Amino acid sequence: MEQPTPLPSRCDVLVVGAGPAGSACALWLARAGHDVLLADQHTFPRDKVCGDGLIPDTHAALRRLGVYDEVAALAAPVPHVRCIGPRGAFVDVAGTLSVLPRKTLDHILVRAAERAGARLLAPLRFEAPLLEGERVVGARFQAAGGGHEITARWVVLATGAVPQALIASGLCERRTPSGVALRGYVRHDAMVGRIKQMQLVWHPRLRGGYGWIFPAPGGLFNIGTGLTGSHIVQRNGKGRMQDINLRDMLDAFCEVYAPARELMSGGELQGEIKGAPLRCTLRGARWSRPGLLVAGEAAGSTYAFSGEGIGKAMETGLLAAEALLARRQVADDDAVRQRYEAALRTLQPRFDLYETASHVNLHPWIADLVVWRARRSARIRSRLAGILEETQNPGRLFSWSGMSKLMFE
């Protein structure tokens, strides 16, 4: 009988979590010649709750990582985002867009990291960091055969929105999620070709968030609802996930939006409807400690306005990798942390602007106003496209002062 290959016990960089952030980080470091272990609690391919929309920043990161063509060959291209206000009026916003389930996307990224030389260890469940004094020098995992320890020069924690790994590492500043989402996949052959765009719907019944329908490859539709940003706390006064019934919100979405109702009533649900927490706006966790960097949604890399976080997760993973690669030129570990945290701080203003824009989620009438004006103004439609492409400031359009200007522009 063939004996199982023993798990490695040391490496240069240990990346915990093989989602977009962790895989991007591992790929970049391995490509540069580092000995990288990429550990995840799940075997791949595995499901991941997400809207699956790939927007311009995601496409840019995929190109940088060298996997864009592989993703594009499998993704469903989408010409625009359709923004639909409570009264049913809509405006289409063009952009570089596509849809690909995370089960496929994340597997592509993991395989790319392996091709670059990273070694994937899965399933391996993170339990706690290994410490020498205050410095992290590895991690302790639970594997099929029992506990296992891996020492590393640096650890990158990219474990997503669930806070347990952050708590165990002494880095969690807020256990409550800053957003939650629920999604399902539905097959409905009669609606294929009728919904060609990413549809986002705002309505008072969905206050604090929105509903969506995205056309996925293979005749599937990703349908879901979400609450984003600080609105969880404002919605129920406590902010505990168990107090928020997203299934009721999905039912409300179907009641107020006819295509969602038709999709769910006449289509065939593929698998379970699943929910997941979100961590937004680069808040809720410390970004580093000696020997450890936090990347991706663990660091809060999701936009509060849209709930989109795939592109920014990869971007933070790449920033972590670049900070570690630069340590050859810096004198000490503190300089690595300073470099990484400085890079994240350059992103913070953009996240803050998108949090300002998330007022539309709490006040759906703003969507009606923006749609009404955008249908009559090519300039406003161009600004909306610029927000999608991240070349325009969303706060100028969705802030209270922006609302005032919008009335007279």
Question: Any idea what the radius of gyration is?
Answer: 21 Å
Output the CATH class name of the largest domain: Alpha Beta
Q: Tell me the distance between the termini.
A: 76 Å
Number of strands: 16
This entry's quaternary arrangement is single chain
**Percentage of residues in DSSP E strands:** 25-35%
Domain unit count: 2
Approximately how much helix is present in the residues? 25-40%
Under the CATH scheme, the architecture of the largest domain is 3-Layer(bba) Sandwich
Arithmetic mean pLDDT: 90
* Biggest beta-sheet profile: 8 strands, mixed
Q: List unreliable stretches of 5+ residues.
A: 233-242
Keywords:
single chain, 409 residues, alpha/beta, FAD/NAD(P)-binding domain, D-Amino Acid Oxidase, Chain A, domain 2, eight-stranded mixed sheet, 26% strand, globular
Describe this structure in words.
With 409 residues, this protein is α/β, with parallel strands linked by helices. It folds into 2 domains: 10-51 and 104-176 and 281-357, 3-Layer(bba) Sandwich (FAD/NAD(P)-binding domain), CATH 3.50.50.60; 77-98 and 177-278 and 363-408, D-Amino Acid Oxidase, subunit A, domain 2 (D-Amino Acid Oxidase, Chain A, domain 2), CATH 3.30.9. It has helices spanning 20-31, 56-65, 68-74, 102-116, 164-168, 231-236, 246-256, 258-266, 310-325, 333-357, 359-362, 365-374, 378-389, 395-398, 400-408, and strands spanning 10-16, 36-39, 53-54, 76-84, 90-99, 119-121, 125-132, 135-143, 146-157, 179-187, 198-201, 209-215, 220-227, 268-278, 288-289, 292-294. The strands form 2 sheets. Strands 1, 2, 6, 7, 8, 9, 15 and 16 form an 8-stranded mixed sheet that branches. Strands 3-5-4-11-12-13-10-14 form an 8-stranded mixed sheet. Strand 1, helix 1 and strand 2 form a beta-alpha-beta unit. Helix 1 packs parallel to helix 9 and helix 9 (310-325) runs antiparallel to helix 10 (333-357). The protein is globular and about 60 Å long. The N and C termini lie far apart (76 Å). The relative contact order is 0.16. The model is unreliable at 233-242 (pLDDT under 50).
